[in-house]
Amino acid sequence: MTDTLDPGIAARLRRDADGLIAAVVRDHASGEVLMLAWMDDEALHRTLTTGRATYWSRSRRRYWVKGETSGHHQRVRAAALDCDGDAVLLSVEQHGPACHTGARSCFHHDLPVTPEPAR
Amino acid sequence: MTDTLDPGIAARLRRDADGLIAAVVRDHASGEVLMLAWMDDEALHRTLTTGRATYWSRSRRRYWVKGETSGHHQRVRAAALDCDGDAVLLSVEQHGPACHTGARSCFHHDLPVTPEPAR
Fold first, then answer.
1. C-alpha to C-alpha distance for B119 and B100, rounded to whole angstroms
2. With 70 as the cut, is the pLDDT of residue A59 above it?
3. What is the mean pLDDT of chain A?
4. What's the gap between Cα A85 and its chain centre?
5. Do A116 and B76 lie within an 8 Å CB cutoff?
6. ipTM score
7. What is the dihedral of CA A89, A92, A95, A101, to 10 degrees?
8. Cross-chain Cβ contact A116/B50 below 8 Å
9. Average of pLDDT values for B7-21?
């Protein structure tokens, strides 16, 4: 393990004003989208080199190994960067629910959508 | 259609320094994660009230109806906000490839992951 993110990967990242990219997390087996979290270079480096999903908490302003308090950790099976480098997709083995509310996925507040009229 | 995002939804959003939330887009039929884009309140409002996925382009600094130039538009079938309001998950009917490169999904640059040691 090296100390910093691979320069070839770092060069591909397009970070926001806070130096972060989005991490989309899906269940490796079912494909279900479980959550979205944030990563700086160091969080991505730790995730790729340890196989444990590690994020940057925007609210707490610190690194956060998923499951460190809840036990609901994520073993990373695969990772892929998107075409413009502002998001990474992690495929994980999710132990327990992904959401701090106890829900399996964090995306559980449905919003109303007006269907596009037929054309 | 009202002119602005429903205040009840707006109150749930937790925006970044640029006023944006992340939009994770998956294929309604297959569940495949296709792309990640960005939305401000207005983009979310337009998406929910027209049924056509509409984003904020961070690089071009303007609204962008997916497919307006490529024809590869997205009909939104469902939308859900996550538990902390910084991301929305869209389930879409994707016409053509989602990625501007012609790939079905934007997440096609695999990153190496060191597996977590067995414990």
1. 42
2. yes
3. 95
4. 14
5. yes
6. 0.94
7. 10
8. yes
9. 97
